[in-house]
Write a structure and sequence with these properties.
This protein has 14 helices and 12 strands. By secondary structure, it is an alpha+beta fold. It is globular. The structure holds 5-S-methyl-5-thio-alpha-D-ribofuranose (SR1) and magnesium ion. The site of 5-S-methyl-5-thio-alpha-D-ribofuranose (SR1) has 9 residues, from α6.
């Protein structure tokens, strides 16, 4: 019989106490439930006497954001802990340390990153993260390359694909990113002021055609092990450090979905600058900085991925002349399309983002939302024709 039950704070403390490498001494531990995401319980366990701390994260058998009417498999906690460990091995220093995983209780005990800030919040507050593009490009290049057929034995990869079959979480993405935003779905959360823009998207046959292509790729292309939800709320940062958390949506899918998630979420903040910058000059500077980061993320990622391929590629056939260039162009195009889809869903789908939603002034919020939709739809329309990352910059600047 399963021992699963949602933990009380006292139980979370007992589990934390067993992690001797963090709490070698027996002083009092205190717990705070800090989960502000959509799906899980998160306990911050601290030892005031020593200043030591860790995180206990437990999956709930339903989506917290909706309630018990939306059941979700607890196996996602196993997937999350295994993905965290794998990402930590492939991209050392860029994922939190895992101290313990208990699949029965659907929990992971991991490093506390309270000295970092969630990147979405940091960007809203005007933070600068000059090392971010270098770090995230390293994370993306290494985790995607070494779990693809280019970077690992293809039979071993198929076995790995099996252990990351993640149907419930993939369905959330299939619905909330690639389906519901494109018709008048009940789950959508549309402010009246932009309803006309959503309705225009629902009537745009050329756009729906591109979304169908993107959805097909998400459904069918087991290219590499993805993080699967790599928005700026899944990244902790300081100016010196980047840590990628929350890979519960991990599965084998199209690489561009992860790269596009990073770019799309930087663009959501770009749109939010309608409010978050104090004046026109700082707005222009902040937006240039965000676009430079987007350019760097792609350019550094591409260079690192190509280097890994040249130095560690396992597939003789993939050395065919011109194949690498063609592969990288297709990956760029996927990235641009998925960045667009990730942007649109956050404006009026089920789950929004603080970059837009917490803008207090209704007129500024509407301008930011419309800007995000113009950029997102522009990227989706362009994706299969794009030639370089400069296409993204031109679409973002052109939407202003
Ligand atoms: C019901 S979960 C809504 C969203 O939160 C997660 O972070 C994913 O992005 C998901 O689509
Ligand atoms: Mg999450």
């Amino acid at each position: 019989m399963s021992s699963y039950h949602p933990l009380s704070e006292a139980e979370a403390i007992e589990i934390a106490r067993s992690i001797r490498e963090v709490f070698p001494t027996g002083e009092e531990l205190v717990s705070r439930e800090i989960g502000d995401g959509n799906l899980n319980l998160v306990f911050h366990i601290a030892q005031p006497a020593t200043g030591r701390s860790l995180i206990v994260k437990q999956a709930l058998p339903y989506a917290k954001v909706v309630g018990e009417s939306w059941p979700l498999s607890l196996d996602r906690a196993r997937i999350e802990s295994e993905a965290l460990i794998k990402q930590g091995e492939l991209a050392p220093g860029l994922a939190p340390r895992v101290y313990k995983a208990d699949h029965e209780l659907a929990l992971t005990v991991m490093e506390d990153l309270s000295d970092h800030v969630i990147m979405r919040r940091g960007l809203i507050e005007g933070g600068h993260y000059p090392k971010f593009a270098g770090h995230i490009s390293e994370f993306l290049a290494r985790t995607l390359f070494f779990t693809s057929d280019l970077g690992m034995n293809q039979q071993d990869k198929k076995r790995l694909v099996q252990s990351y079959i993640n149907p419930d979480l993939c369905k959330i993405t299939e619905d909330l990113i690639f389906d519901h935003p494109y018709y008048d779905a009940e789950t959508n959360n549309i402010e009246d002021s932009i309803r006309d823009a959503a309705e225009a998207i629902w009537r745009d046959e050329a756009l729906l055609f591109e979304v169908a292509h993107l959805r097909e790729k998400f459904l069918t292309r087991a290219q590499a092990l993805l993080h699967g939800d790599l928005h700026t709320g899944s990244i902790f940062v300081t100016p010196e450090s980047t840590k990628v958390i929350d890979p519960e949506f991990a599965y084998f899918g199209p690489m561009g979905f992860d790269v596009g998630a990073v770019i799309g979420n930087l663009l959501l903040n770009f749109a939010g600058q309608e409010h978050w910058s104090a004046d026109d000059v700082s707005r222009r500077d902040r937006r240039s900085e965000l676009l430079a980061t987007i350019r760097d993320v792609w350019t550094l990622f591409e260079g690192k991925f190509r280097r890994l391929w040249d130095e560690h590629g396992v597939d003789r056939v993939a050395r065919a002349a011109g194949y690498q260039d063609d592969y990288m162009l297709r990956l760029l195009r996927d990235t641009i399309g998925f960045a667009g889809a990730k942007t649109v869903r956050r404006v009026y789908g089920l789950a929004h983002v603080a970059d837009l939603d917490t803008i207090p002034d209704a007129a500024a919020r509407e301008r930011a939302q419309r800007l995000a939709l113009a950029i997102g739809t522009g990227l989706i329309r362009r994706n299969r024709q794009a030639e370089s990352i400069e296409d993204v910059i031109l679409i973002a600047e052109g939407a202003l």
